[in-house]
Amino acid sequence: MKVVLSLGSNLGRRFQTLQGAVDTLFDAPGLEFVRASPIYETDPVGGPGGQRPYLNAVVVAETTLAPRTLLERAQSVENAFGRVREERWGPRTLDIDLIVVGETVCDDPDLTLPHPRAHERAFVLVPWSKADPEGALPGHGPVARLLEGLGDQGVRLRDDLKLQRPD
Ligand SMILES: Nc1ncnc2c1ncn2[C@@H]1O[C@H](COP(=O)(O)OP(=O)(O)OP(=O)(O)O)[C@@H](O)[C@H]1O
Ligand SMILES: Nc1nc2c(c(=O)[nH]1)N=C(CO)CN2
């Protein structure tokens, strides 16, 4: 089934973190890379003020894994990349959200699918629409239509950066 993952980083070496996360996510069986979106620089949504902008991207994949197994893999990659090494207890540098996993609908706080805030987040929808123009969010409709209703949330293409296929 199809999986859509949202990756974001706003601390440390943001691009290297995203590429490392992609390489590691696909380094085990059960998850096959299909396509990565372009990279966007985005204004932080929510959280404390004064944060650096994020780099965000969306990755489309195919999986035979159960949604919870995917969540565990995403969290272990967050743990591997998500901390600034030189700073003990430093802030997280990587967020990986499961946006959709096939047609799975799940309302557990530990795993809510589709992601409950994806439909209102330009930092998810803009890259997703580039990686997967036919994409749709179950319960909300086509990504292209969701985007029409969103204001400009400060999402800027970084065409100087490009994710490579995982090695
Ligand atoms: N679809 C999902 N993808 C990733 N994590 C999820 C999902 N649904 C629920 N979670 C849970 O959310 C928790 C992550 O919380 P965290 O504080 O990192 O949220 P966030 O990524 O900062 O914010 P947001 O959930 O708004 O994107 C994890 O413990 C995870 O179990
Ligand atoms: N621009 C941007 N803002 C965010 C992001 C993100 O990836 N990009 N992730 C968040 C928690 O998942 C909260 N806010």
Automatic annotation (TrEMBL):
Keywords, sorted A to Z: ATP-binding, Folate biosynthesis, Kinase, Nucleotide-binding, Transferase
Alphabetical list of PROSITE patterns matching this protein: HPPK
Location of the 7,8-dihydro-6-hydroxymethylpterin-pyrophosphokinase domain: 88-99
GO molecular function: 2-amino-4-hydroxy-6-hydroxymethyldihydropteridine diphosphokinase activity
InterPro entries registered for this protein in UniProt: Hppk (IPR000550), Hppk_sf (IPR035907)
NCBIfam families reported for this sequence: folK
Name of the protein in its database record: 2-amino-4-hydroxy-6-hydroxymethyldihydropteridine diphosphokinase
Organism lineage: Bacteria, Bacillati, Actinomycetota, Actinomycetes, Streptosporangiales
Gene coding for it: folK
